[in-house]
């Protein structure tokens, strides 16, 4: 699906130099590298503040907490996303409420969101799925109408845009992940919350550090229960090197995705997941849909293509095979098959193909040829 060794080969000297600088300083936690990355990524993302944390999941948990979400609240999340989106809600004692996805883009459907708002709803999480923007204008209208916090889960969309604005810059906060496979990935876990609110940024800095304000006056004095969720200096140093390359990597991803699209344009039995016309896709994943042959086994054709590619040593992924409302983790909420039909159908049809900036045209054509051959058999 990706080749991190190929990426490292292009930046190895810079990364080693950055790591050696940290080792020489012996400053490992909340030092100048983290502060520098917070400034640089906030500027890149068109935000005033960035707060580095230990993971993308923590970025969501702390974002929700800083926006006032707690036990008894409801937070609307898409059913078609990674479990961490809903898990962050559950971690605070709140309840995730699942909305269906748009049939074209597979991002959260604002109409489905509005249909499940209740008096207990406090926030909506918009996931920029595969790197494509959710419908932030419509979601913003619903959020404003009902007094909800709009939180962007931008783990997959860093560098993408929506109507000319960077993803992660539109909701009250934007949470991102630096997991190694992400478009801006570290050498381990890491995450960041981006916001224009000074108040929220200050609270996030307290929450990530055991509820302590920091500095000499705040040491060992906790104002509220918090976490140990601090982005470390080594990760920040690596990410600062990579951030300088991000736009170039995104351009390469976009060019490769365009070639995939051209290869599949007239191929029966497959269609790329669409992105809104007004957004720049970050292409964290290049995902197609392979419709099934019938209701008895809707995933059969997709799975056949996947097996055929595996026989040729071509790796693929299914993101995501089980919608959240049907996950065993959330069985107690009473979700059942048929509740969210678009998400359920997507789970049976999606297939993600290899895509990474260093991928050659010859490699891409080999994948496309294998897909075409599998669909003919």
| Total tally of structural domains | 2
CATH class of the largest domain reads: Alpha Beta
Q: Please outline the major beta sheet.
A: 7 strands, mixed
CATH H-tier superfamily of the largest domain:
Type I PLP-dependent aspartate aminotransferase-like (Major domain)
The tally of beta strands, per DSSP, is 13
Strand order of the largest sheet: 1-9-8-5-4-2-3
> Pairing-aware structural class of the strands and helices?
alpha/beta
Number of helices: 13
CATH topology of the largest domain: Aspartate Aminotransferase, domain 2
Q: What's the rounded overall pLDDT mean?
A: 96
CATH architecture of the largest domain: 3-Layer(aba) Sandwich
How large, in whole angstroms, is the Cα Rg? 21 Å
Which percent range describes the beta-strand content? 5-15%
Question: What overall form do the CA principal axes indicate?
Answer: globular
Instruction: State the order of secondary-structure elements, H for helix, E for strand.
Output: HHEHEHEHEHEEEEEHHHHEEEHHEH
Helix content, binned percent: 40-55%
Distance between the termini: 23 Å
Low-confidence segments, given as residue ranges, are none
